[in-house]
Design goal:
By secondary structure, the protein is α/β, with parallel strands linked by helices. It is built from seven helices and four strands; from the N terminus they run E-H-H-E-H-H-E-H-H-E-H. It has one domain: Rossmann fold, CATH 3.40.50.1010. A four-stranded parallel β-sheet has the order 3-2-1-4. The protein is globular.
């Protein structure tokens, strides 16, 4: 099972060609991809046109859904954030520390295009899927 961060999904839906969007394209229908509540919200909130929203929602509805946030993930996310801060690293977005923590706790690899996840890979053992 693989988690695809919103940073890759957004590029994918915007038609941006990169090694990460190409990998996502090749994984669709071939691998079990999980979509979580946080990522689903981040991806879908950005669509301006209802038609584009519906197309994206239809594709994302085909993926396995898992809730990402509960008290255990929230508490561990706070601990992870504090640990990174103690090392002089500030993760810019709370949602990113929560997504990263969810992946760490469940041993899911993450495909992303967001530098907020780099210190989580280095210091917390986040598994990252690389093209």
């Amino acid at each position: 099972m693989i988690i695809i961060d919103s940073s890759v999904w957004i590029d994918f839906f915007n038609g941006k060609i990169s090694d990460k969007t190409d990998l996502l394209d090749s994984l669709l229908g071939q691998e079990r991809i999980i979509i979580g509540d946080l990522i689903l919200t981040e991806v879908l909130q950005g669509f301006r046109k209802n038609k584009d929203f519906q197309v994206a929602k239809s594709l994302l509805d085909t993926l396995e859904f898992k809730p990402m946030v509960g008290s255990e993930v929230a508490l561990r996310s706070a601990e992870n954030y504090r640990m990174l801060r103690s090392k002089g690293v500030t993760v810019r977005k709370t949602i990113d520390i929560m997504i990263g923590t969810f992946c760490i706790m469940n041993s899911y690899p993450l495909l992303h295009d967001d530098h907020d996840f780099d210190p989580m890979e280095k210091n917390l053992g986040l598994k990252v899927l690389k093209p």
